[in-house]
Structure formats: structure tokens, C-alpha cells
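Dig into these lines:

——
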Amino acid sequence: MKPSIIYIPAMVLISILSVQCNQSQSGQNKTSEDTASMANNNYGGFSSQVEWGKHLVAMGGCGDCHTPKKMTAQGPVPDSSMFLAGHPSQIPPPQINRKEIESKGLVLTNDLSVWIGPWGISYTANLTPDTTGIGNWSEEQFIRAIREGKWMGLEGSRQLLPPMSFVAENMNAAASDDELKAIFAYLRSIKPVHNLTPAPVSPILAVTH
């Protein structure tokens, strides 16, 4: 987040108070309300960048794939201990006929954290601020990951795999830089979970030379 976003409202308030210190209490209250309104407009109407990012993550359904599910008598429910932590590292790949699936369509596990299709096997990533997640990412990397569909937001890295490649494409078309920065700020604020998700697996039908 640019420093001007943090400091401009405060400096405006200080300037107003310094030249209008003799105004009535009602005038001071009005100034405070205007300043709060200005700050909210900078964060999509929310009180902070993190709160705005939390709203965007919920609206985007990020937890549908990045938070593993637990099976209960009522069906699958999100595992709160693994919030946005991606595919659990200790769970092995599903035992399936990959050749048949890759040639006919796609399949995903019941916790929505493993996707198998013509691209091979992809695992949902850890989005928490742990070192196994995005803890070492910069804001620039996060934005590049969405804007360019690059793994870890690194120049020259591979493209993201489905389903995240589709998500990133939609986000790139719809989200502003400020919205992406808010999402990143929120992800950096949640509980870090140490969970090194598996690397993707190349398609079994890939042509080798």
C-alpha cells in the first residue's frame, strides 16, 4: 500500500485542526466525520484495507478450494484449522486411473483441494503468511501472479494451472490494483499455517521427445 493512502487523511486532519482550532465542537465533529468518510472511500467503504480484503476473499470464494473440507454427518464443512492453507501435505494423491481421466475430462477430490485433468494433477496452494505459503511473497509478486498468471508471481516461472488459472484470468479482468492489494493485505493478516503443498504432477499423457 502506498504511504500516501495511510498518511493523507491524517495530515489533512492535522492541517484543519491547526487553522481552525477555535471552531465549535460541532465543527470539529464534522471534520472527523469527513475524514473517516475519506478513509472508508479508500478501502471500498470498509474501515481498513485488511477488512476490505477480507470481504473480497469471502466474495471470491477463495476458501472453497484453498480451505480443505472435513466430512461430517451433515456433509463437507471447512476445516477451520486449515483456513486457506491449501491441500494438506500429509494426504497422498488419489488412487485413480489418470490416463482415462486425463483423456476424458477432469475430477476433483471431495475436499476440493486436488484437481486432475489434461494438465495433470494440481494442488490448491497455501495462501497463509507462513513460509510454506505466501509469507515470503512481496505485494508485487502477488499482483503479477494474478495479472500474468505466473506461479509465485515470479518472472519467467510457469503458468498457473487449473483451476487457479481460470480464477486468475477472471480476477485480472475484474479486479483493480487496489483490490488486489487489499486481498494481499488480508492474506498477510490471517493465521499462518505450516503446510507445504505438493508440487503439481505433469500429465501422464504428455508427449515426450
Remarks:
- Helices lie at 3-19, 25-42, 49-60, 62-66, 98-104, 139-148, 164-174, 177-187.
- The beta strands are 69-72, 75-78, 107-108, 114-117, 120-123.
- DSSP finds eight helices and five strands in the chain.
- Residues 3-42 form one domain.
